[in-house]
Amino acid sequence: MQTSVNRFKHILRLTDDTGIVEHALGRIPRRKEGYSTDDQARALWACLEWLDLAGEEEAGKLNDLIDTYLAFLLWVQKDNGHFHNNIAYDRTQEKEAPSDDCLGRCLWAAALALVRLREPERRVAAETVLEKALTQVSAMRFLRGQAYAMSALSLLIAHRYPHHLMNELEMLTQRLVDAYRSQAAAGWNWFEPVVSYSNAILPWGLLNAYEVVRDNRILNVATESLDFLIRLSTNEKGQIRPVGNKGWCGRESRALWDQQPIDVMKLCLAAAKAFQITGTTRYAEIAAKCRDWFYGENDAGVSMVNAAEGSCYDGLTDTGPNLNQGAEAVISYLITEALYLKQINQKREVDHYAACTT
Q1: For 296, which of 86, 217, 272, 303 could close a Cys bridge (C-beta 3.0–4.6 Å)?
Q2: Are 73 and 83 spatial neighbours (Cβ–Cβ below 8 Å)?
């Protein structure tokens, strides 16, 4: 188990005065690989989750990181609200097409920052990013980006930000529900013909939308798809087994390797949200099993975490962990750990309330 002293050692190692470096060779940052805006948004999210749990010393480090990641988002955001995703180490932009996934991640991270940060000097940066990015929501075409955007809109509406956002939330929610209805069939309760990457972000987006819209049809699609993904992501021992990225999963076949920390984190995210909304303890158990995957409760029986460094291996292969420890992996681990600790606190509150009312 990590201590507060070394929990953020690796994310600090990967982060310089520009942002968090995307890749590492072992634990050493690979600067020539540069930065991705995706990772800055994820890292901002991780720091915001930990602010609620951190002591005074940790909070200071986290706020410094938050400033760096917010500055990156401000820097790479285009005049039309989109974000340039791939940045070389010399801070030049690499050629690319705009990404809905990147836009969605930045929307979510900026919305979370606006809601959770208390200092107006930081909130103004998040608000500036959001105002421009929100203009692109209606043009989003890809499901995962839309799920992030739905979650951002739901969060803003729940905290009484502009009510006109409800129209866009309902539009995106309907698109995701329509995708599910067009693909779902007996034994295949999913939004697409293939279960690929970052899968649980789709039911998570619907769960967030349900909290605002309160339409049981949305909740039904969210829980049906999440339950299907949980069955697909559980091995014979009851451990978490995310879909491997060497072939993904279709109706006829399923890849076992390589398993990615980000897919475990997203499953934890959706399960924890489902527990929060429904109170069903099975979802809390799945979230805890996702956390256990990082500590060795997985197909290989090996820990994915280097506790002494506060780091996480990039993936689980058929020969063991990929020893590289890049940004996506450590961020996925840190978010999972924070979600797990918050769920424990939530369950204690529920148990305490139940004891007091009996």
Answers
A1: 303
A2: yes
